[in-house]
Amino acid sequence: MEHGAVENRSDLRAAPGATDPLPAVPQTPAHPADAGTAPTPEPAAAPGRIGTGWAHAKIILFGEHAVVHGQPAIAFPLRKIGLQATAAPVPGPLRLTVDIYDGPLAHAPARLGSLVTTIESTLDLLHHPLEGVHVTCLGDVPLERGLGSSAAGASSIVNALADLMGTELDERTRYELVQTGERVAHGSPSGLDAYTVVTQRPIWFQAGRVEDLEVALSAPLVVADSGRPGDTHSAVAAVGEIRRSDPELAADYFETIRHHTVAARADLAADRAASLGAHMDAVHETLQILSVSCEELDHLVGTARAAGAHGAKLTGGGRGGCIIALARDRDHAPELARALEEAGAAQTWIIDPEEFTA
């Protein structure tokens, strides 16, 4: 999960092979329908139709915290886990069912504000009245672990509502709708989470610009959940205090992260696993200095290295949540996952980069 305002957008240009630049997040219309990209769907769902939608989780491989200050980041879809949404016609007001609430959308607790906003914005875009739909969203993405649970929930709901209306939304429009909800959840997010959960491919993200990432890596990544909820707000506050008290030092730290992120991009394209792992180790040490890590994360990172990983680091906002470790090869990945679970990881997932190169 990532917070904060993105700086220095105006002087950036899309690199060769990049997608069209995403809009500057603060300038995105409050209602995506205002963006002029609204489709022309059916005016109402067909009787008896139930819309379904699914969205995967995500990991940030490089760029945590630095990304919200205009530095690049690398993110991967985590397809092993996700959230499933349904949207069904019902009489009366909008309803929402999630793991912590079941009732009228208008009475949903404040912590579900991002989903409420996503539902209302999507129905507005689809020219559907704000009534007559029951939305459910359930799945296996753990909350507050830096895996994009809020963005994945919003994405699955957008997909389900579009399916209910018999409408297909393009990737850009889905991103806009998810980002509308993310803004409620996180203030001024960079857009990295929102884009990673709507795309099926690894991405290079910087200041609202997105590029497809070339991945030739053969060694799998292992994601391990520390079991401790992340505390992104306090981590962001700690980094912000360093920026206020010593701007030059903070700039040096962000430059260090940028250097390793750029080098990691080349390593991913050239299948240089040992070098990639070394950059992961270096970034974790920088995040430790920034007070973004915690005892549980450091313990799992140390366990991964002792178990033979090429490298390991925290992923996401920090102070809890998950780590990622780079296995030596496919045979080593389950051994590494087992070692992390024996060391206290609540659960693990293996990402085989081959799924992105096939």
Automatic annotation (TrEMBL):
Enzyme class: transferase
InterPro entries for the chain: GHMP_kinase_C_dom, GHMP_kinase_C_sf, GHMP_kinase_N_dom, Mev_gal_kin, Ribosomal_Su5_D2-typ_SF, Ribsml_uS5_D2-typ_fold_subgr
Domain of life: Bacteria
Enzyme Commission number(s) from the entry: 2.7.1.36
GO terms for cellular component: cytosol
A Pfam family the protein falls into: GHMP_kinases_C
SUPFAM superfamilies assigned to the protein according to its UniProt record, in alphabetical order: GHMP Kinase, C-terminal domain, Ribosomal protein S5 domain 2-like
GO molecular function: ATP binding; mevalonate kinase activity
Keyword flag ATP-binding: yes
Sections of the chain in a coiled coil: none
Start-end of Basic and acidic residues biased regions: 1-12
Region of interest (Disordered), residue spans: 1-49
UniProt cross-references to NCBIfam families, sorted A to Z: mevalon_kin
Name this protein carries in UniProt: Mevalonate kinase
Annotated source species: Rothia kristinae
Originating gene: mvk
